[in-house]
């Protein structure tokens, strides 16, 4: 059992479900899930950690699927643009979407101890932010919510603050 976000789960089932959801969504929307795009998604799904484009490229290169940065960047761009992956701004890295095919406003909890990333519902925070912006006459173009801290496993082994 690998962590899904911060909870234990059947990771093989998690990966299979996500791949199936993305493949179905691509068929429904007339998108092409090429072998490289699918493999990049599998790489992101392998762990619930954010990976940089060069981390992804290193795996692709090792598998003979492409050694030049545009290969990874194009696949990541496709996945992000279509909601199958998210860019973690703080880390300049990418993580597979925990809810592919669903319209949602995610926020991200990033563990500074082990680098796990959990996708959490962000709608309440986005609503509050939009309300505050409306009161000030500010027009929000894009919202990214990322919080850093310790996951339950790292928090349990951390030295007490005092």
Describe the structure using short key phrases.
alpha+beta, 162 residues, 45% helix, two-stranded antiparallel sheet, Arc Repressor Mutant, subunit A, 19% strand, three-stranded mixed β-sheet
Secondary structure topology:
Elements: E1 2-4, E2 7-9, H1 11-29, H2 35-45, H3 53-62, H4 69-81, E3 85-88, E4 93-96, E5 106-111, E6 117-121, H5 123-136, E7 145-149, H6 152-157
Parallel strand pairs: 5-7
Antiparallel strand pairs: 1-2, 3-4, 5-6
Describe the structure.
The chain has 162 residues and is α+β, with helices and mostly antiparallel strands. The protein has a single domain, classed as Winged helix-like DNA-binding domain superfamily/Winged helix DNA-binding domain (Arc Repressor Mutant, subunit A, Orthogonal Bundle), CATH 1.10.10. Helix content is 45%, strand content 19%. It is built from six helices and seven strands; from the N terminus they run ββααααββββαβα. The protein has helices at 11-29, 35-45, 53-62, 69-81, 123-136, 152-157, and strands spanning 2-4, 7-9, 85-88, 93-96, 106-111, 117-121, 145-149. A three-stranded mixed sheet has the order 6-5-7. A two-stranded antiparallel ribbon has the order 1-2. The protein has a two-stranded antiparallel sheet with strand order 3-4. A hairpin with a 5-residue loop joins strand 5 (106-111) and strand 6 (117-121). The radius of gyration is 17 Å and the shape is globular.
């Amino acid at each position: 059992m690998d962590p899904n976000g911060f909870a234990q789960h059947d990771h093989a089932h998690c990966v299979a479900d996500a791949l199936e959801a993305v493949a179905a969504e691509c068929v429904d929307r007339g998108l092409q899930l090429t072998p490289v795009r699918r493999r990049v998604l599998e790489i992101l799904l392998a762990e619930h950690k954010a990976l940089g484009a060069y981390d992804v490229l290193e795996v692709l290169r090792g598998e003979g699927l492409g050694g030049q940065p545009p290969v990874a960047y194009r696949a990541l761009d496709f996945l992000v643009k279509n909601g199958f992956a998210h860019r973690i701004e703080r880390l300049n890295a990418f993580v597979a979407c925990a809810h592919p095919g669903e319209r949602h406003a995610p926020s991200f909890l990033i563990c500074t101890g082990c680098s796990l990333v959990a996708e959490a519902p962000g709608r309440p925070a986005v609503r509050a932010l939009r309300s505050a912006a409306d009161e000030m006459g500010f027009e929000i173009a894009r919202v990214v919510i990322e919080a850093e801290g310790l996951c339950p496993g790292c928090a349990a082994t951390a030295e007490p603050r005092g």
